[in-house]
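Data deposition worksheet. Section B asks for the primary sequence of the deposited chain exactly as it was used as input, without tags or linkers unless they were present during the calculation. Section C holds the resulting structure in token form. Section D is free text for depositor observations; keep each observation to a single sentence. Incomplete worksheets are returned to the depositor.
Section A, Depositor: J.P.
Section B:
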Amino acid sequence: MPPPPPPPPPLPPLFFPPTFQGEEHEIVIARNGRPVAKLVPIDMASTGKRIGVAKGKFEVPDNIDAHNEEITRLFLGGQRP
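Section C:
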């Protein structure tokens, strides 16, 4: 039985200095000289103010935690926590 083939050489580390500096807006990954993938930045729209967005829209009842044990039991399929 012949010996197994040697492992492939390690891949070079990824290094994109123009990308880190914000000069490039896309990276094309090629295999055998042919483009196979393009990395582009995601446009992130501002979500605006989120904390306190529902303030004054509803009231939290004083007994909000009254059914915690029952809810836990329902999630656990009737078992006690």
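Section D:
The chain is about 15% helix and 15% strand.
The mean pLDDT is 80.
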